Amino acid sequence: MKKLCKILGLNQSLDDDIKVKVNSALKDEDIQYGRKVLKLIVSEKNIVTCIRTNTYQREDYKKGFTVAISNVRRNETSPFTYHKTLNYGDCIMEKRHARKSGIDEPVFLNTKGEIAEGATTNVFFVKNKEIFTPPLSCGLLPGIIREYLLHTFKIQEKIILPEDVTKYDEMFLTNSLLGIMPVRKMEQHVFESMTIGTRLSQELFQG
Fold first, then answer.
1. pLDDT value of position 207
2. For residue 197, what pLDDT is reported?
C-alpha cells in the first residue's frame, strides 16, 4: 500500500493512522471469526475502513467454483492492472453478469488472447501434480496468496491459452479473502480432480 501511494503520488502518512483504524475494526467479533471481512481504502484525503459480510461458504470449497471466459479483455499494458486500486469497474460488472448466468468467477484474457486472471482472483492450473500460473506479464494483479504460493511451492509461470485448459487435471483460484478455491468446471470442461487445490486450501486455513 505504501508503494502504491508513492506511485500514485498520494501524500498519506499510513503507519499510525492505519494501525489505529485497523486495530479498532479487528475488535469486531464477526471479523475475528471470519463471518465478516475488513476492507481498507486510502485516498489523498482519507483512510476508510469498511466491514462487510464474508460471502464465501464452506460448501463452495467442497463443490468447487464454475468459471467462464469473459468477453472483456484485460489490458496488460496498463499500469493500473498490476496494482490494487478502485479502478475495477470491469471486474464488478463482469462478476455481476457472470453470477446471473450461474458462473462463480469470470476469467479475463489479455489483449493477446492469453489467460490473465479472474475478476477477483489469480488463476492456477495443475498437470501431473505440477502447478502452473500465468506470469505477471500477461496482465494481472500479484495477489498476496499468489505470492505466498510462489515462494512456498515449486510453481512454474507459463503462458496459458484458453485452448490449453483441457490439457490440465485441475484448476484453482486464489485471493486473500477466499484463500484457495478449487475449480470444478471452466466453460464446458469439467476437471478430473480438485485434490491439490483442496489440499492446499486446507493447509492454508490450518496454518
1. 59
2. 97
